[in-house]
Amino acid sequence: MPSKISIRIDGELINAQSGASLLDAALAAGKFIPSLCHMKGLSSVGACRLCVVEVAGVGRLLPACTTPVQDGMNVTTQNDKLRRYRRTILELLFAERNHVCAVCVSNNHCELQALATRLGVTSVRFPYTFPRVAVDLSHRKFAQDQNRCILCTRCVRVCAEVEGAHVWNVVSRGVGSRLVCELNRNWGDSRNCTSCGKCVQSCPTGALAEKGFAVEEMTKRPEPISRLANLRGVHS
Amino acid sequence: MSRTITINHVTRIEGHAKIDIHLNDQGKVASTQFHVTQYRGFEKFVEGRPYYEMPAITARICGICPVSHLLASVKACDAIMAVTIPEAGRLLRELLHCAQFVQSHGLSFFHLSAPDLLLGFDSDPKLRNVVGLIEKYPEAARDGIALRKFGQQAIERLAGERIHPSWTVPGGVNQPLSTETRDWILSGLPLARSIIRRTLKTFKAMLDGFPEEADSFGNMPTMHAGLSDYEGRLQIYDGIMRFRDADGKVVASFAKPTEYSKYIGEASLPDSYLKAPYFKPLGYPEGTYRVGPLGRLNAAESCGTPEADQELAEYRQRLGRIVHSSFFYHYARLIEALYASERMEELLNMPEILDTHVRAEAAVNCHEGVGIIEAPRGTLIHHYKVDEKGAMTWANLIVATGHNNLAINRSIQQVAERFVDGNQLKEGAVNRVSAVVRAYDPCLSCSTHAFGQLPMQLRLLSASGETLDSVTAG
Fold this sequence. Notes:
The structure holds two protein chains of two kinds.
Chain A: E1 4-9, E2 12-17, H1 22-28, E3 52-55, E4 62-63, E5 74-76, H2 80-96, H3 111-118, E6 135-136, E7 142-145, H4 154-163, E8 168-171, E9 178-181, H5 198-202, E10 208-210, H6 223-231
Chain B: E1 3-8, E2 17-23, E3 29-36, H1 42-45, H2 54-59, H3 66-81, H4 87-119, H5 130-136, H6 138-159, E4 168-169, E5 172-173, H7 179-206, H8 211-216, E6 223-228, E7 240-244, E8 250-254, H9 260-263, E9 264-267, E10 276-279, E11 289-290, H10 293-299, H11 306-319, H12 329-348, E12 368-375, E13 378-386, E14 392-398, H13 400-403, H14 405-419, H15 427-439, H16 444-447, E15 456-462, E16 467-472
Parallel strand pairs in B: 1-16, 2-15, 6-11
Antiparallel strand pairs in B: 1-15, 4-5, 6-7, 7-8, 9-10, 12-13, 13-14, 15-16
């Protein structure tokens, strides 16, 4: 039976279960910490760094999704510095790929776009890199557009941890990192893909989408996948 | 010594252009050139994108008539999916298109051209704009704003957004029509129609005041082209493309969109990013034809709605069966606005327009698709090729203003010959040269698929290429 511990988040004393992440504890207490790579029911990897928080006595920022709560922790989730860092991270995500919201199937239903709006990103101060990246339309039902990928790896984890197929991986490093299907196959040639669509429903942007949807039509439903993951005890 | 005049920029048009007028040794007009000065490259950068994104991408070519690109694009996508879309979907697309005709023709007539027509071609350029119009002819300005507002609001009610809506999708539309929206549009139609009727009456009363303009604004025999149905009734969403020669004889027609390339060739001009389509059987540049309101009414037998047909009969009685002067684009535009408002009522009163089956679904069944519609400015063609997965491999867009490119060039020459004399550009002459371009209601940002600003430039050049005079037309 996990024991209860006390932590302070933004000055407020809250009870949390030991072993929980800071992000889960904060969310359970009704606090807002932005995140893109986190998805309930999946393992946490701290990829997007949007959930960075200040912990008193720690000299660096910590990602809330991979930091376990400890008794007596004093956490700051909102201040000017954190807001600035988070906005900068979002701007870098936009600059790194070709996110053209106006013509995206997920326009108005995109977690990246919604977060940018919420955090007040009105422009991108960094030069766009305009990478030439692939669009894979080889799957019968689904489309993969790396122009809109933020490398959150939700698809990688949901496929490996919930569906058990492990179709997706990330290759290369840094700004050259790319999502790949198996050992760099076209998605349509995948030997493991069950076409379950969990990766599509988990994707926070329009990078993975159902084929045939026109602009603004693709809405995602990750909640049932989180519930399924919890039922199976994947990462509850 | 021969010279060249440059008008840089031409204003109250959509896009960015300049005009060169070359003078000969006697100071008379030797030749003119219409340059469209921006490049966009839509046809290239869409390669690799899924075909079903094309409506949203190509709609961004233009903010004035995105609906035209949306419709041409979804029709090309329907062809790629090889589906016949549900009847209600087809009717709703046409209804949206009619609403666009009302707003776009309203914009062209009232906001862009009425300052010339009502205030006069020689009036003070500082006041010769929509603000001057509001001061001097407030009721006309109010009418223009109200008409455009109605068209735009009808688009918004139908499609969710006034600009770049996502309602029209490959296979149909994504939401059926509600009775509330139908009733709202129906309730606004009488006002829109009374504005158009009033404006037609005013315009007809003014016609005799512009003998020189009517005579020299591109008054020339060319072919005319546009869509109409089997009986020759005007169609704006779907129909048979007909080419009629200057004597009114139908010289070519085709119903299958893919056949356009048999009849339409595209020439690249050295000084312009705007290509020059021509009628292939006659070759370049003999195969000049005109599209848009003038071309459509010349190409069609009738409009097919009662009031517009009555106006069309009077129009032909005044000007002949084939109207040659581009000055009458304005007149034809008003008749078409009347047609669009009548057609909207017809469509809204069809019970099947409320049907909830509005979309067909399919994947790639054909590797090539062509969509042809009549945009307010003329025939718009979207031609796509895709691979077996649905990724775009090639695109060709032929836009209304492109079809008119050769005719615009010839019209400029004619106006310049009549009104430009000597080394100096006189205000009235500059404005008339710009106004003849404006009569075509060109959309240069569309036609080059290029990002653009509004103004247009006019230059006067000597035979040796030296710039003698240069103005930004106002």
